[in-house]
Amino acid sequence: MRFGDFPFLRYLPFLIGGILLGKLFPLQSLLAPSFGLLGSIWMTYLIFLIKKNLTFRPPFALLAYTQLLLLGFGLSLWSQKTKSESPTPFSTNSLGYLAEAQKFDSEKPNSRENLVKILAIKDSTSWKRGDGKVLVYHQDSLQIRPGDLLFISKIPEEISPPNLPDEFDYRAFLAKKGISYRQFIGKNFRVMDSLPHESWRFGMDRLRNFFSESIEAKVPSSDARQIAQALLLGQKENLDKTLRNSYAETGTMHILAVSGLHVGIIYLVLLFPLRLIKLKGKPEKLYLIAVIAIIWIYAALTGLSPSVVRASTMFSLFSLGQMRQRRPSIWNILAFSAMIMIAWDPDVLFEIGFQLSYAAVAGIVALQPLIVKWWLPPNRVLEYFWQLAAVSIAAQLATFPLSVYYFHLFPTYFLFANLVVVPLAFLIMAVGLPFLAFSWVWGVGDVLGWAIDGLIRVQIWTAEFFQSLPFGSLDRLTISISGMLLVWVLLLIWGNWEWGDRRKLTALFLLVSAVWIGEGIIRESRKPARSLWVFAGEKGLLLELQSGDQTLSWNQSFPLDQLGFSIDPNRIQEGRSRFPEPLKAVFLDSIFRVPGYDFSFSVDQKRIFWDKEKPKSIRYFQGNKVESGQIAESIVIDETGFRVIF
Question: Which residues form the DUF4131 domain (predicted)?
């Protein structure tokens, strides 16, 4: 087995490299030249490929890899260009807008949520074409349905960027979905018209809503309905926070995100009759085409998430290979599907779901066979659970660097939880698919709904049991990008040690280890001995003093319910405690003075005063403005805050 046996696996890094170059150097002036150069190289490549009698033969591999690099670079620039073209802005003269509903209402605690697409904007003199999407919240008794044309007599607000460092970027999250605005409209809108009910554009939304209503009607318990919506239809928007945490903290959250596991279960169920009937020739091909069609219908039904598209593409390629009596390499299929997705949308490369999905499959393919060899079970039952455990261990090893990097969490009992939850998910899917198909049949839907309810209750109980165990999860973990690379290199060395070039593998390990150690040394050398974090909001003020390993905090009416998503991400990233000690101050002459730390502050004046030691630098959260050198005797606390380095 050689790396050269996997051509698409060789091509993928160059395409990704081009995408990353486009992100590092987002120069729109290079868009046309990059595609022009790509076309010229392609023509040169084609000419030399056709005219075989030429004496000079160029390095074809170099030309091919250069084309992939330029293609990735050009696609990245093109994607940035199209997405940077902001929707039609609203002006002070705007009186309202005409919009088309894009989905069915989603219930929220005090309102209903919907997504509308702006069609036209009305001002004091005329109408003009509009663009963009708005996340609206209304309180009307009537449901808004896909295709409804609404006139909304209020102007939406743009979604604000995060004000505090390391805070979740909700604006960027919605921007990936094309959503630029949000608005509470209450009852200030009118339904002007509606598309015909049989319109094909929202056919999948109507089908999904029909299945969702069937689950609501036939599955008895509320918790089971939420899990069924997520597991069968990919609808996690209304998932209870407690339920979400139970699955997340036990390493079984992947069950609730419709992914390759779910598509794989459908694929196995659909192929089972083929094994019994043993079709050959044209009937077999027609059946496999039907299987591919059903898989992609399910992918569209569940929202075409990156993991579902990856799995659907891979199983489609497997089916096409089966039609031609071939067994294509899993590595080629995995890389080819990634290239298709990246070429279609370069930004998918930076989505967490895409990264986790491909890392998990790569880990399973590379490491599961090695793990299985650790033990030879004495019977088939133990062998089944050992195979399942090996898959879970391999996937967790490959994805835990990403989990730590993004979520700062590692589930301690993931292996034992998955041994129960995954088989239950298979049973739920096996019952759920017939339920979706026959829920309209009297009696059948009720029986299957009760079965789904019972299975999901057992699954929920399992997740909550493992969550309740001592040390159920390790949280507040951090890892650098070089640390992630080091972990993956170690896994790569382990997976290739028997048949790979051990000298090259050792050299790769030493190189990445040197980068990781060097990054750590640089980070520690730049870490200040003392710094003051000032977090300001509309409702209050929070001061956190970091002195060595000690963290002291002063909270002046800063909302406690905002600490988790506004302040805690920064605490984790900077290594500060979740529960800092109180910062003690003396109130004197209307100013709070902090003994021993050379600063004092006035809440009334919103100002911090320096005593003997002035700061070395001040970095503002908004705009990344930095002050250094001659620092003034005091500083006004702005609307977001700043970091002071002593």
Answer: 36-187
Backbone angles phi, psi at 300, to 5 degrees: -65, -40
3-state secondary structure 248-262: HCCCCHHHCCCCHHH
Domain boundary among 325, 340, 355: 340
- Report pLDDT digits (tens) over 15-30: 999 999 988 888 888 8
* Cβ atoms 392, 386 nearer than 8 A: no
Tokens describing residue 230: 């997520």
Q: What is the pLDDT of residues 389-441, one digit of tens each?
A: 888 888 888 988 998 888 888 888 888 888 888 888 888 888 888 898 888 88
Phi-psi region of 320 (alpha: psi -120 to 50; beta: other; left: phi over 0): alpha
For position 4, what pLDDT does the model report? 56
Judge if 78 and 133 occupy the same domain.
no
Examine the pLDDT at 313 and tell me if it is beyond 70: yes
Backbone angles phi, psi at 600, to 5 degrees: -145, 165
Nearest to 365 by CA among 418, 416, 329: 329
- Structural domain including 589 reads 527-645
- 474-487 average pLDDT score: 87
Given 151, 166, 195, which residue is the final one in a domain? 195
Whole-number Å distance between alpha carbons of 483 and 504: 20
For range 26-55, the mean pLDDT: 77
Q: E-strand spans in 159-289?
A: 179-186, 189-194
